[in-house]
Design brief:
Layout (H helix, E strand, L loop, with lengths): L9 H11 L3 H9 L5 H9 L14 H13 L3 E6 L3 H16 L3 E6 L2 H4 L5 H9 L4 E5 L6 H9 L3 E5 L13 E3 L14 H12 L4 H17 L6 H15 L4 H9 L7 H18 L3 H8 L3 H34 L9 E6 L6 H12 L3 E6 L3 E7 L6 H6 L5 E6 L3 E7 L3 H22 L8 E2 L7 H6 L15 E12 L2 E5 L4 E5 L11 E10 L2 E11 L17
Parallel strand pairs: 1-2, 1-3, 3-4, 4-5, 6-7, 11-12, 14-16
Antiparallel strand pairs: 7-8, 8-10, 9-10, 12-13, 12-15, 13-14, 15-16
């Protein structure tokens, strides 16, 4: 079966190439990412602050800013309530320091998902009602808590929601809100809560570039942690923010980076080394220690918070290993081909580890996964999907078994009655099977390639230019280039060579055993490493007998 290839728009690619002074191959890759004009291409490639949308253009932002300025002007107490994951912790930190910098009387309260569940719980709500707070800002939560907002209003307390979760029953009912998913316009939908907090900081602290640089570092970490699409303003935040992490003056962040030996800051190193430390305390319950570590400036107090974070992370690692082994044992006992979505659950599992567990299992088995920590009466869990599957939509079809659920297409949370676990598992897989059959008959299982060219056309000039497309990530996947009718020679299981009668290039990846006469069609990602081109193998198939060497509009070996 041949590889699908994105439709090639030679004229637009040439137009973008002329406007940007980049190779037509780069232009075609941009077109495949949804770029439609040279101006859009320039904005994507520049990925700088002038290319950002104006914060006040976000729906709800003018009302939110006006309310905050009014509260600050009247010295009214403001309480920030943030979620406990990396996005929630860092967005609440940015918002707290922003309001503090402009004279706000601000306090912080962070969620404890383990003891009180997701969002603003009734217990916390009762304490707020009895306090002197005049406004509560819910960040990274609150969109679907209409009754809670009503209670706050009845007690004369203003509420502001800064969130990016999908509304299940219409937009928020708070005094003001910013959530790009609650309006028809798609502007800003790539932003997670830390990105929205940064947009608020851009308005209120426009005369404090030093603060904005520090906030940008935090925003880049949170955006990567939440797997936000790296397009639009999210792309700019990450591209501009990664260097700011290395240059940070925030002593708590430096302490954390030193503890994980983070020297070279890349999306991968941030996700693998830094994010787990930031997430650890929230997964155990109370994220106060990591928030304080990142906010605190006094060295002695900082060390106290650091020790708590370190201890919590070590405890979490041991717990995660045990739970993962138990989950894998469960999966080994099922009839795997009948489970289009893996649903695992057990008593004694820590609810804070269900997100990482679902992600680990989804990656290992290439299946959407729901992991549930079962209690005496209810179970609380997290779900992680694959890029082409809307898992939230599938879960929504099973809502009769659930106490509550919510989140995004790729990552969501569920709570169910323990006695409905098996029924939920069965119905979810029935819906997933239907979706799987539809996709099997309507789509080629291979991911589309950006373009096809001959191996002779993979040249230094445009391969080096591909760096401008980084960082790769959700919504901006690595480029896939199709080369056909080539041989592969292995020098080790993951290193070798690919070539034809004209050229040979280094190849890395999981390489097949092959005969001298075997020819392959490859999807590769060309990379410039140590002053030479290397091809990262993404996918391969035995060459079709009728295949021509190459078919690119720009190819030097076009028949």
């Amino acid at each position: 079966m041949s590889y699908p290839i994105y439709p090639q728009n030679h004229d637009l690619a040439q137009s973008i190439s002329q406007a940007t002074h980049f190779h037509p191959y780069i232009a075609q890759i941009l077109i495949n990412r949804g770029i439609q004009t040279p101006d859009e291409a320039l904005r994507f490639l520049r990925a700088d602050f002038p290319s950002m949308m104006h914060s006040m253009d976000l729906e709800g932002m003018p009302r939110t800013i006006a309310l905050l300025q009014e509260l600050i002007a009247h010295d009214e107490p403001i309480l920030i309530f943030g979620d406990s994951d990396c996005d929630g912790v860092l967005s609440s930190l940015i918002l707290y320091e922003t309001l503090e910098a402009v004279g706000g009387k601000v306090a912080i309260k962070l969620a404890n998902r383990i003891n009180l569940g997701y969002g603003l719980s009734d217990e916390v709500l009762e304490g707020i009602v009895e306090s002197n707070a005049k406004c509560v800002i819910l960040i990274d939560c609150g969109t679907n808590q209409h009754a809670t907002m009503q209670t706050l209003a009845e007690h004369g307390i203003e509420s502001i929601i800064i969130d990016h979760h999908i509304p299940m029953e219409g937009p928020p009912t708070s005094s003001a809100w910013v959530n790009p998913h609650c309006v028809e316009s798609t502007q800003g939908r790539e932003l997670c809560s830390v990105g929205l907090a940064f947009k608020i900081a851009q308005v209120l602290c426009s005369d404090r570039p030093d603060l904005l640089e520090e906030f940008l570092a935090l925003a880049a970490i949170g955006t990567l942690a939440d797997c936000s699409p790296l397009i639009g303003d999210s792309r700019i935040i990450v591209k501009q923010g990664l260097p700011k992490i290395e240059l940070t003056r925030r002593s708590g962040l430096l302490r954390l980076m030193g503890s994980v030996n983070l020297k070279k800051v890349t999306p991968d190193t941030v996700l693998k080394k830094l994010v787990p430390r930031i997430n650890a305390m929230g997964r155990l319950g109370d994220p106060t220690s990591i928030w304080q570590l990142l906010h605190e400036t006094e060295r002695s107090k900082q060390e106290t918070w650091f020790d708590k974070v370190k201890e919590g992370h070590e405890s979490l690692k041991q717990m995660a290993k045990r739970i993962a082994a138990q989950a894998i044992e469960q999966i080994n006992r099922i009839h795997f081909k009948d489970h289009h979505v893996l649903v695992v659950g057990r008593e004694g599992w820590h609810a804070g580890l269900m997100g990482p567990l679902a992600s680990q299992l989804s990656s290992r088995y290439n299946r959407p996964t729901v992991a549930i920590a079962l209690g005496e009466e209810t179970g609380t869990g997290s779900a992680r999907s694959l890029p082409h599957i809307n898992l939230l939509g599938l879960i929504q079809k099973c809502e009769s078994h659930l106490v509550k659920y919510g989140g995004h297409e790729q990552a969501c949370g569920v709570t169910l009655k323990v006695d409905r676990f098996e029924a939920f598992q069965k119905e979810l897989n029935e819906h997933a099977k239907v979706l799987s059959e539809e996709q099997k008959h309507s789509k080629n299982p291979s991911k589309p390639c950006d373009l096809e060219c001959g191996i002779e056309d993979i040249k230094e000039n445009w391969v080096q230019e591909m760096d401008v497309l980084k960082p790769w990530g959700q919504g901006n996947r690595p480029a896939r280039i199709l080369i056909r009718n080539v041989w592969i020679k292995k020098s080790s299981p993951r290193r070798g060579w690919v070539g034809n009668d004209f050229l040979t290039l280094p190849l890395k990846g999981t390489l097949p055993d092959s005969e001298e006469t075997d020819r392959f069609d490859l999807a590769v990602n060309p990379q410039w490493e140590k002053s030479e081109i290397k091809l990262q193998l993404l996918e391969l198939k035995l060459c079709e007998a009728s295949a021509q060497p190459c078919q690119s509009e720009y190819s030097s070996c076009k028949p």
